[in-house]
Amino acid sequence: MDVFSQLAEERIKQAMKDGEFDQVEGKGKPLKKDPLEHVPAELRMSYRIMKNSGYLPEEVQLNKEIASLRDLLKYCTDDQDKQRLEKRISEKELQFQILLDKRNMKQSSAYKRYSSKINRLF
C-alpha cells in the first residue's frame, strides 16, 4: 500500500472507533443496484452523464417511441386509430433502420452485444 492508502485506512478505522458511521443512512441495508451494471465499465461514465443530462441517443429515443406506439396499439379499439398507429410505427421503424444503416451500427459488434442493454437503460 502507498502512503495515501495507509493514511486513508487509518482515518477510516479511527472514524469507526469514534462511532462516526453509526448514524449513516441505510446502515445495515443492502446497497442499491447500479442500473448501469450491465454496461461495460469503459462506457459507464459517459452513459451516466448522458442519462443525467436528459440526453437520449437518437436510436434509443426512436425505440422508446416505437414501444409507446405499440402499447397504444394494444389498447386501441377504433379501426381508423389502429391504422394511423400502425402507419406511425412503420414510419418510426423505417426511420430507425435508416439511422442504423447510416451509422453502420448493424454491423458493429459492440452494437450487437450492447444494444438491448443500452435500450433498457433509457
UniProtKB/TrEMBL annotation:
Domain DnaJ homologue subfamily C member 28 conserved: start-end pairs: 7-73
Protein origin, superkingdom: Bacteria
Organism: Gracilibacillus thailandensis
Name the UniProt record assigns to this protein: DUF1992 domain-containing protein
Classification via InterPro entries: DnaJ_C_subfamily_28 (IPR052573), DnaJ_homolog_subfam-C_membr-28 (IPR018961)
Coiled-coil stretches: none
